[in-house]
Amino acid sequence: MNTPVLTETTNPQAVLWDMDGTLVDTEPYWMRAETELVESFGGVWTHDDCMLLVGSGLWASAAILQDRGVALAADAIVQRLTTSVQQQLAEHGVPWRPGARELLAELKSAGIPTALVTMSVERMARQVADLIDFPAFDVIIAGDMVTHSKPHPEAYLTAALSLGVDPEHCVAIEDSAPGIAAAVASGAISIAVPHQLDLPESVLYTKWTTLGGRTVADLAGLYRDRHNSIERTKPRHESPNA
C-alpha cells in the first residue's frame, strides 16, 4: 500500500532554530566582544576578522583568537565573550531578526514543537529564551551540550532526538554556512536566511532573503514538497498477481 500524499494542512513535526543571526541579531554584540578582547591584549581585530567567526563554534573561535594574541585558555575566552554578550543583551534586550518572533509565535500557537539549536553556551541560550515574552522553546541544545560544533550535525540530531521526532520530519532555519551545512547533514528540511554573509543558491536547502511575512503555511509547503518528492522517487513494486 502506498503512503498517503501529504495534504496542504500537514505541518512539520518540529522546527529547529539557530539563534545568533537567525532568531536574534546578536552578531554585532559578538563582534564588539571579540574586538574588545583582542584589543585588551594589544591586538587589532577588524570587521573582516569578525566575519571569520560567524557561525563557528565558540571553542573554534577561541583558537583563532589565541592565534591573534589573546593569551587566555580557550574556556576563559569563551566565558569572557559570553559574559560580554550577555551584558549587552541585558542592557539592550533581544534584537529580533525580521519576522522571527512572529513566525516563532505562530508555531507555538499551532502547537508545533520547537528547539533552539545554537553554538552559544547554555547560559546565554537560556537568557535569550527567558527574555522572550512567551514560552518559546520546548528544547534548548547549546554549544557546551554537544561534542561537535556546527557544521557537524550533532546539535540538530540531538535536538530532534530530544523532541522525539525524526530529523527528516523537521524544518531547520539557519543563517550561516556552518549552520546550514549542519542542518542539511542532519537530514532536516533546511532553510537558509543569510544575514552577515551571503550563501549560494543550492538544491540542498531553500534560500529565503528574510523571515518577514513567512508563516507556518510556508514551512508546511516545504515539508509537503520534500516528502511528496520522496514518495514519487520510491521504486514501485508490481503486484505478484499482476
Describe, in plain words, how this protein is organized in 3D.
This protein has 242 residues and is an alpha/beta fold. It has two domains: 148 residues, Rossmann fold; 66 residues, Orthogonal Bundle (DNA polymerase, domain 1), CATH 1.10.150. The chain contains nine helices and six strands, in the order E-H-H-H-H-H-E-H-E-H-E-H-E-E-H. The radius of gyration is 19 Å and the shape is globular. Helix 1 packs across helix 4 and helix 3 packs across helix 4.
Summed up, what is this model?
The chain is 45% helix and 9% strand.
How does the SSE layout of this entry go?
Blueprint: E1 14-17, H1 27-40, H2 47-53, H3 58-67, H4 74-92, H5 100-109, E2 114-117, H6 122-131, E3 139-141, H7 154-163, E4 170-174, H8 177-186, E5 189-192, E6 206-207, H9 216-233
Parallel strand pairs: 1-2, 1-4, 2-3, 4-5, 5-6
Helix pairs in contact: 1-4, 3-4
- Tell me the CATH superfamily of the largest domain: HAD superfamily/HAD-like
Mean pLDDT across every amino acid position: 90
| Rg value | 19 Å
In CATH, the architecture of the largest domain is 3-Layer(aba) Sandwich
**CATH topology-level fold name of the largest domain:** Rossmann fold
Any key phrases for this structure?
DNA polymerase, domain 1, Rossmann fold, 6 strands, single chain, alpha/beta, six-stranded parallel β-sheet
